[in-house]
Amino acid sequence: MRESTSRKSIGVALLLIFLLFGFWYVEAGNFSDSNVPGTYVFQQNGERSTLILRADHSFQQQLEVEGRVSRASGSWRLFLSDSQSHIGFSKEFLKLSNQKINPDGTAYGGLENIFGLLSITLGPSPDGPTFRKKWFH
């Protein structure tokens, strides 16, 4: 009787692991106009920035450094491929410390999705500033 219960427990555990891995595999590459919009926050080295991405591909950003607050509005777009997902911001994006800006003034970052927890890491990747999506306000 114990052997049968033990086999069932192992079977259930393997099934749960398989389902969890399947969910992660599908979710990790899920970047779309429906799940990328939202509020993202960056805080490091005395800088705090809030980035609001809207479904209409506009953004609002607030950057606070040493008590000074700057605000910007612009646009964003997704660059999706089979192996990587990136996001681009218009030249209005406010530059953070340790962030690389392209010669045309635009900013780019990589998207990461770990079990539904989205983040944006700006260039230079992977060491650039990372915004993390807030789920509750």
Characterization of the model:
- The chain is an alpha+beta fold and 137 residues long.
- It has one domain: Lipocalin (Beta Barrel).
- Helix content is 20%, strand content 42%.
- It has one helix and eight strands, in the order H-E-E-E-E-E-E-E-E.
- It has an eight-stranded antiparallel β-barrel.
- A hairpin with a 2-residue loop joins strand 6 and strand 7.
- The protein is elongated and about 65 Å long.
Key descriptive features of the protein:
alpha+beta, Lipocalin, 8 strands, 20% helix, 42% strand
Fold blueprint:
Elements: H1 2-28, E1 38-44, E2 47-53, E3 58-65, E4 68-80, E5 85-89, E6 107-114, E7 117-122, E8 130-133
Antiparallel strand pairs: 1-2, 1-8, 2-3, 3-4, 4-5, 5-6, 6-7, 7-8
Q: Write down the overall geometry.
A: elongated
Helical region count?
Answer: 1
Order of helices and strands: HEEEEEEEE
**Structural domains: how many:** 1
Q: What's the Cα radius of gyration?
A: 19 Å
User: Structural class per helix/strand content?
Assistant: alpha+beta
Give the total of beta strands: 8
CATH-defined fold name = Lipocalin
Helix content: 10-25%
Top-tier CATH class: Mainly Beta
Unreliable parts: 22-28
- Assess the beta-strand content as a share of residues: 35-45%
A few lines on this structure:
The protein is an alpha+beta fold and 137 residues long. The chain has one helix at residues 2-28, and strands spanning 38-44, 47-53, 58-65, 68-80, 85-89, 107-114, 117-122, 130-133.
